[in-house]
Each structure stands twice: as C-alpha cells, then as structure tokens.
Amino acid sequence: MHIERLFAEHFRNLETIEWWPHRHFNLISGDNGQGKTNLLEAIAVAASLRSFRTSKLSDCLAFDEKEATLGLRIERRGLREDLGVRIAHGQKKLFLDGKSATSMANYLGRLVVVLFAPTDLGLPHAEPSERRRWLDRLAFNHEPAHLADLRRYEQALANRNALLRQHKTTHVDTGLLDAYDQVLAHSGIKLILRRQRVLQRFAPILRDAFARIAAPGLLADALYLPRDEVEDEAQLLRLLLANRPRDLARGHTTRGPHRDDVDLRIADRTAALHASQGQCRALVLAMKIAEIRSLEADFGEPPVLLMDDVSSELDATRNRALMGYLDELGGQVFLTTTDAAHIRVAAPRQVFLMQAGHLSETGRFDRTTSPDSSTGVT
Kind of pairing, strands 269-270 and 261-266? Predict the structure, then answer.
C-alpha cells in the first residue's frame, strides 16, 4: 500500500499542499518548527482519524480557520481509493471516493500507517499510559474495530469519573453508575482480549527482530500486564461493582483496562530496571520493525511508515541498522530530519525541504526511473 497523493488545507501551519510523494522513500528536511511533523500528522489523521499529538482534532486547525481538509489517494492491492476528512470544531466529516462515508468503521483500515517518533525511544521508561497507547495503536492497526471500542470505553470512563467526583458534594445516581459500568465491562473486555491476542502474535516477531540488531543471545519480549485477571464481561462487571465503594471514596475508577501495562523485557528482566540505555533503544527499534512485519504478514504488503526525526536520536550503530532495514523494507516511508546527513539509504527516494509550512522539491535519487515513480508538489 502507498500514498499517491496528499492534499492538505488549513492544517496547522501547512500552506495548501497538493503532493505526489515518491512511492518508496520521502525525505523531508528542514529546521525545527517549520512544519515537518505537521506533515506526518496530516497523513496520520487522514489515515486513522487520530492525531499522535493531541486528543482533539480541532487543535490541528490553522490559526483563525474554522475548518481543515485532508485528502489521500491511496493504492492498495492494485486498487485506488480516495480518502478525505473535513475537520471543524467538535466534528468531522468523512469521505470515500468523493462521497460521504457511511460510517467510521467503513473508513478506517484502508490505509495502515506506523509512526516512529523520538518519544517512542523512551517507552521502556515511560508511564504505563504511554505503553498502553502504543499497544492500542498496534491493536487498532491490526483490527480497526479496536478504535471504536476504545473510544466508547474512554467516554464511559470519563463520565463515570465525573460522577464519582460529585460524591462528596451531592447524591450520586447509582442507576447512572450501573449504566456506565455496563459500557465499561462490554467495551473493556474487548480491549483486554484484543490487546492480549495482538501482543501474542507480535511477541515472536519482536524476538526475531531484536536478535538481528542487538547482541547475539539477548532475548526481548513484550508481555501484557493486566491489572486484574478477568476472562469475560460478567467478571469485569463484578469487579467494577465490588470496587465501587473505593471508587466513590477516591473519586475515580480504580480497576479496568485503563490501568493495565506492557512489560518490555530484555534477557527475561524488565528493560527499564535492568537494561542499558542502548539496549532499551535497540528494543524500541526492534518493536517498530516487528510492528511493520506483523502488519505486512496480516495485509500482504507493508504499511506506510512515518518517522519523525528519529535517526538523530540513535547512535551510529543503531542508525546503520535502521537505515539497512529501510533499504530492505520495500514499502513507502516518510522521514523527517533536520540533518539529511543522518539518512543514508540506497532505496529510491525523493528529497523535499519544508520551510514555514511550504514544501518544495530539492532532489531525486532513483536506481531506475519509471513513470509510476513520478513525484512532485504544488
């Protein structure tokens, strides 16, 4: 799968862009603050309807603009499709091939993207919420229905917590709590089981990827750590009900999949506690490679890879390993950098410059030139 065309209007600081990226490797260079990350964010939002920088899509609107428009023309398994999203304050409208999409479920999953950002390198030492966010992105990419379940759970959780906080000042409607508990149990067990299922498939691929880029004999793993061992919706519902007195006293929901974690391990020990910084970074690099491979195995072709200035954060050895993998990938890559000297790949590629939201073409390096690898930006 790859992106043939990107259109963006009134999205963050980007000037109106109509861009035909290279079908293999796109290098976007420029100083900090020029809009490189905004360009990757536009692709991510158009593909997944979620930003990797904010929970509110209206934050992506350009200053003083009421609406932003994104459009992608994609090719997947030889078929072309047009995806579009119009973002306004508090709402969004989706389009497929120029017509209103019948549902979010019908829109999602048509283009799969994997993001690799500098903040990902800190995952072993990050808060559990960051590792959950990584796992939920992985689950969503493999099974797009995960996003709808996650949103239903998060909305019910926010409403339940708001009700719990009222307990000290006013009477709490237990009927409403019962209703929220039903939603949390119904959506929550789906999240738990899907996270477990996806991670079980992912872990062997991670071990293989880590073995290729780390010291021989070192094993890596990613284990799901649920706060509570529950196997079905009824069991999760009973858990929520049993903990309601404590939740009322504390003013928030203390049990459920929003408290779970992922144990990232090297040599059968938690990486954050026992591994070196270099080993932890190698682990995250292996996680991204494994994510791409697992998705390629599911979909029969590699996903689109978005890399936001990661190479500058890696040492020379791991940067060479990353560049070598990108050469082998065969899929489409969008990579930002402040220093193009970090990027040493032999793959066919196009180099662009981002300045104050304006994207311009600066060079092209192909092994061969063919009509279907034409590039450009207007």
Answer: antiparallel
- Residues 116-126 as b/e (b if ≥16 CB within 10 A, e otherwise) read bbeebbbbbeb
**What CA–CA distance (Å, rounded) separates 127 from 192?**
19
* Residue 60: partners with Cβ closer than 8 Å, 6 or more residues away: 11, 12, 41, 42, 45, 51, 54, 68, 87
**Which has more confidence, 159 or 344?**
159
The answer, yes or no, to whether residue 366 has pLDDT greater than 60, is no
Q: Which secondary structure element, helix H or strand E, spans residue 150, and what is its range? A: helix 145-165
Q: Give pLDDT, residue 365.
A: 60
Interhelix angle 145-165/128-142, rounded to 10 degrees, is: 140
Please, are residues 353 and 19 in contact by the beta-carbon 8 Å criterion? no
Rounded to 5°, the CA angle 303-305-310 comes to 155
The tokens of 67 are what?
């609406």
**Domains, the chain:** 1-112+303-378 (3.40.50.300), 124-302 (1.20.1050.90)
- With cut-offs at 50, 70 and 90, classify the pLDDT of residue 328: confident
Extract the tokens encoding 62.
């350009």
Output the CA torsion sign for 112, 114, 115, 120.
Answer: positive
pLDDT tens digits, residue range 3-58? 999 999 999 999 999 999 999 889 999 999 999 999 999 999 999 888 988 888 98
Among left, alpha and beta (phi > 0; psi -120 to 50; other), residue 106 is alpha
- Average pLDDT in the 60-77 region? 93
**Calpha distance 9→45 (Å, rounded):** 13
Residue 171 pLDDT: 82
Return the SS3 of 254.
coil
DSSP 62: P
Decide if pLDDT at 303 tops 60: yes
- Percent of the chain exceeding pLDDT 90 equals 63
HSE-CB for 62 with a 13 A CA cutoff: 18
38 in Cβ contact with 30 (< 8 Å): no
| E strand or H helix that includes residue 327 | helix 316-329
pLDDT for 318 equals 77
From the CB of residue 168, how many other CB atoms can be counted at a distance below 10 Å?
A: 10
- Mapped onto helix, strand or coil, the DSSP state of residue 292 is helix
Strand partners, 9: 69
